[in-house]
Amino acid sequence: QVQLVESGGGLVQAGGSLRLSCAASGRAFSSYAMGWFRQAPGKEREFVARLRRSGGDPYYADSMKGRFTISRDNAKNTVYLQMNALKPEDTAVYYCAAGPYSTTLVALWSYWGQGTQVTVSS
User: Which of 17, 22, 38, 117 could form a disulfide linkage to 92, CB 3.0–4.6 angstroms apart?
Assistant: First the structure.
């Protein structure tokens, strides 16, 4: 079992930056791939970024490439999402996820946090 707690969300103006953190408790954090997803009101949860267990091979959704950076610190059991050049369309609840597979598919992730709200004003 892995428990995930996100933090770092908030209100920011367009063009600004935020850094989300996801702290994991439980066993063997380093054995899980980690990912970030988001869900805007009335929309399905969508893939943002994912990272392999080793921390290598980061992969991003097209609209996040060049703006978002995912990283992990296995010593601190934490995964991060640095978000730069934020746009109003980035407004959503952001969730971190852990699982055995580093994938873009929501259904294949085993554990989810409660989410943190990110609001980008124009």
Answer: 38
